[in-house]
Design brief:
366 residues, 15 helices, 13 strands, 6-stranded parallel β-sheet, elongated, Rossmann fold, 2 domains
Length: 366
């Protein structure tokens, strides 16, 4: 049995791939390094892994007092991770990028502990670019990411995804949601929602349901739910009686939601893309325009280049443009099927297994 430090946090795009790898290392001892004030703390505790806390935050892009404060904070976090390494003696460290993973990976490099990194975006993040040179192995989700990294052991594994994506059928997913077996549209902007997507989506719900008889699963985000409902009552007062429409602030089980869907309107975080591909969905991407290093636009453009999705700028999305994009897929079944097939063709269902295999090799000194 080996002992691993797993690290990554702040957002689901860093946390869930790390959790997928941790779950696959079920015969080994896992310590999760993260910020106890972030989302990863609750998720890791639910999973039952030992949590090692570090107080670290993202760096500002400009040189000011806050940057100096964050650098000092990072230094303290690195020293704390060095202490964790001395105390628990991990065989290897695995990090999914982002500022939360930096202290454990830097400490691993100082303490001569082999480490592996995974980056989920077409444009690797700052932490991955800076620390990949010393990694024994680097895993990426997009082939184009390798060009940005200075490491000869760079593998295109795809993102680690949960095993349920391989098991659940579309029919069962729809039954679980109380839906019929017919064309289904998913609208989502992440756990917090996306106001631009929500505002456009509210305007088209009635038309998509009544004019095209399409089912709609709409995740508004927790912060935006009340606003959406207030708007919807004005536009479509009878929405609650419409069996084609499910609206919730948040779905705990996104596997079932995505497996039930044929078309998705979504941001273009890499994990979302991987899960959309795993379900063979035709996506309409609306990238978050303020994402670090503009990675969401780059992710979405990669998918469009592979003819595996459509693209709308956040500044362009409105009732007219969104409805046109959705209807272009509803009315052209051949086009819909082609994009779905291309999307599914980009799915990498063995990403977790490949990453775990490479991680175990470096832990064993190979």
């Amino acid at each position: 049995m080996s002992r691993f430090f797993i690290t990554g946090g702040g957002t689901g795009g860093h946390i869930y791939p790390a959790i997928a790898v941790a779950e696959a290392l079920k015969d080994d001892e896992i310590f999760y390094v993260g910020n106890p004030k972030n989302l990863e703390f609750d998720i890791v505790k639910q999973k039952g892994y030992k949590f090692l806390g570090v107080n670290v935050h993202g760096m500002p892009r400009s040189f000011d007092f806050h940057l100096i404060e964050c650098l000092f904070q990072l230094g303290v976090a690195v020293l704390k991770c060095c202490f964790y390494i001395l105390k628990y003696k991990p065989d290897a460290v695995f990090g999914t990028g982002g500022y939360v993973s930096a202290p454990a990976l830097i400490a691993a490099r100082f303490m001569n502990v082999p480490y592996m990194m995974h980056d989920c975006d077409a444009q690797p993040g700052l932490v991955t670019r800076k620390l990949s040179r010393g990694a024994k192995s680097v895993s990426v989700a997009f082939e184009c990411a390798c060009k940005c990294l200075n490491n000869k052991n760079c593998y295109v594994n795809g993102n680690p995804i949960r095993s349920a994506f391989k098991i659940l059928s579309k029919d069962d997913a729809r039954k679980n949601l109380g839906l019929e077996n017919k064309l289904t549209l998913c609208i989502m902007g992440g756990s917090q929602g996306a106001r631009s997507i929500n505002d456009a989506a509210v305007e088209i719900l009635k038309s998509v349901s009544k004019d095209f008889d399409v089912q709609i699963i709409f995740q508004t985000g927790k912060k935006n739910y009340e606003r959406v409902i207030e708007q919807l009552i004005l536009i479509y007062p009878q929405y609650e009686a419409d069996k084609n429409i499910i609206i919730k602030p948040y779905f705990d089980d996104m596997v079932t939601v995505l497996k039930a869907s044929d078309i998705a309107v979504s941001r273009s975080g890499s994990l979302s893309i991987s899960e959309i591909c795993a379900c063979g969905i035709a996506p309409i991407f609306v990238p978050y325009p303020y994402a670090a290093a503009d990675h969401q636009r780059k992710n979405a453009r990669y998918m469009v280049e592979k003819d595996a999705g459509l693209y709308l700028e956040d500044s362009e999305i409105n009732e007219k443009t969104l409805l046109e994009a959705v209807v272009s897929l509803i009315e052209n079944k051949a086009r819909l099927k082609q994009i779905q097939e291309n999307s599914l063709g980009l799915a990498k269902f063995d990403g977790t297994e490949k990453i775990v295999g490479q991680l175990k090799e470096i832990a064993n000194g190979k």
